[in-house]
Write a structure and sequence with these properties.
The structure is a homodimer. Chain A is of the alpha/beta class. Chain A has 10 helices and 16 strands. In chain A, helix 6 links the parallel strand 11 and strand 12. The longest helix of chain A has 13 residues.
Chain lengths: 331, 331
């Protein structure tokens, strides 16, 4: 009997268990060209929170109330009426938040043969790693020797950005919350780490960590991190804006910036981007990333919770700033 | 006897007469290669306010207290010990805020032969027109049929941007303060005009004036104008940030933005720029602009005050938002 998490009401602010319902999906035989997949891993992303709002401002469609949620997953085909898949095939898809995913074969993609664990396709070998790659390499055009500042450097995307920055020969400054996450960011190779939860202003901390200023800023956070990056930006600095997790739970809330005028003084360029806009480069990216993983130049950090029941609590946890690396649920 | 305005103290907030002193400059004979110019027109720019702060954050050097101020001017050579200039030559320079300018010949440039009034070299045919041109044409890469939003559209730079936008076939929305300035912006060719002083929010007003959204935003203002442009931006919108006049008088003051996350949702690119970074294209620009002026496609709007004594009051006036076009002092 297949079970799926449904969105029962729209969170205002932080999401909690009261916004989710675990309900049975009606069992049905496969239609032609459909496949049934038993999921092994499900993905949780902070940006899913945006889709829980009634108005997503065009980001991605809003999740309908009373319907099953969706998201990334990897699993194994257990039944197929498609010529493209056979039982036993490993696949990835966007029909997550459930133990079994059923749908047309177009909704599933076979995992490539790279020698990496299956769940890596939900982070470094997937859209998250690709987001890190696109935002840093393509959008920001970094040069060896430049200083890269990464916010949420202990998170899924940020931890990939830190490591790619080091591979490119940059000096990398990462920010993360708490001693433990900061130690993890340093282990990933960051030259300096800022604990944003420690006393002091972000600007003072960034000035100390990046004495030569910031050439590239990879933003997952917005707010005081963005303002500090503006305050410390060097001439012709490039800012790649991937997300602003601080804004997801209260989108109407304002963000106060004191140093925006420096975009003129320092000719800063700020660009919002989304990995999937560059999907033509996805295959090349995966080959490159698999090599970095194989050589040990990119390491993965995961936070794993077990069982479908764990989904809502694991999702809420991500907004406390204590989750290291990629949040995954293992079934 | 040459007179010059000196900065007597640093304004906090709005500049007033108490911050300026009109004092004699010691008369001295010309050294070799020097020229003496009697000024006919002096330029006043809001951005001069930045240089009156002790810390200009690298924008341009701070004006020293007790020293003569500088700025744009045009005039006539009345004495020359340079082989490059003869009495009667019309020149422009950056040794303004005074009736006579003396300096090495490298500080002066002969006015070209274009059939425009001398003072145009202080606005449309000078750095201001060039700023409009660079920010719109080079930085924002506009296309015919796109919607252009210009803040401070009744000002020196904005009025040039409006007209260049129309020449490029764009739909132009300008914002200005008050019925009179709005009428002027419409006369310059804007398709829609927003009175930012009228009741209602900037977002509502911009939504009404730009029903198809904003593709290019030319910002002279920051603050609620920038936030509204973010809120109404179309996919792949380009923002050229020329200045943020609202920030000049209180640079430490924050700017609250509610819609910055849309840089990701709409893949917006925000670039700060300064005209003089592109000085290699300056001659081409002047030829082009002179043709637009000759054909009547670009019209100039000036606010003229008479006499050197008028400088401080004319400068302060610019921060009231009531000045139309380029503020000039005629000697």
């Amino acid at each position: 009997m297949a079970l799926a998490w449904h969105l029962s009401s729209r969170p205002q602010g932080r999401p909690g268990p009261e916004h989710f319902d675990l309900r049975e999906l009606g069992a049905r035989p496969l239609a032609e060209d459909e496949v049934r997949v038993r999921n092994g891993w499900l993905s949780l992303d902070p940006a899913m929170r945006i889709r829980m709002n009634a108005d997503t401002d065009g980001y991605q469609p809003s999740f309908p109330i009373g319907e099953p949620l969706t998201g990334g997953g990897v699993g194994e085909v257990i039944e197929s009426r498609s010529a493209k898949f056979a039982p036993g095939d490993k696949v990835q898809h966007m029909v997550g938040w459930r133990d079994e995913s059923v749908g047309p074969d177009t909704a599933f993609t076979k995992l490539p043969d790279y020698p990496v664990p299956d769940q890596y396709y939900l982070h470094h070998m997937g859209v998250i790693g690709f987001t890190a790659y696109v935002g840093l390499v393509k959008e920001a055009q970094p040069k060896a020797g430049e200083t890269l500042f990464v916010s949420a450097a202990g998170g899924a995307t940020g931890s990939a950005v830190v490591q790619i920055g080091k591979i490119l020969g940059m000096r990398v400054v990462g920010s993360a919350g708490g001693v433990e996450k900061c130690a993890m960011v340093r282990e990933l190779g960051a030259d300096a780490v800022i604990d944003y939860k420690a006393p002091g202003t972000m600007i003072d901390k960034l000035a100390a960590a990046a004495p030569e200023g910031v050439d590239v800023y990879f933003d997952n956070v917005g707010g005081d991190h963005l303002d500090a990056a503006l305050a410390l930006a060097n001439m012709h600095a490039r800012f790649s804006i991937s997300g602003m997790v601080g804004a997801y739970n209260g989108m109407a809330q304002g963000m106060e910036l004191h140093h925006l005028m420096r975009v003129v003084y320092r000719r800063i360029s700020i660009k919002g981007f989304i990995g999937r806009d560059n999907i033509a480069n996805y295959a090349d990216f995966r080959r490159q990333m698999s090599e970095w993983i194989a050589s040990g130049q990119v390491k993965s950090r995961e936070t794993v919770r077990d069982g479908l029941e764990a989904m809502p609590a694991a999702f809420a946890e991500m907004f406390d700033g204590r989750v290291s690396g990629k949040m995954l649920v293992r079934l």
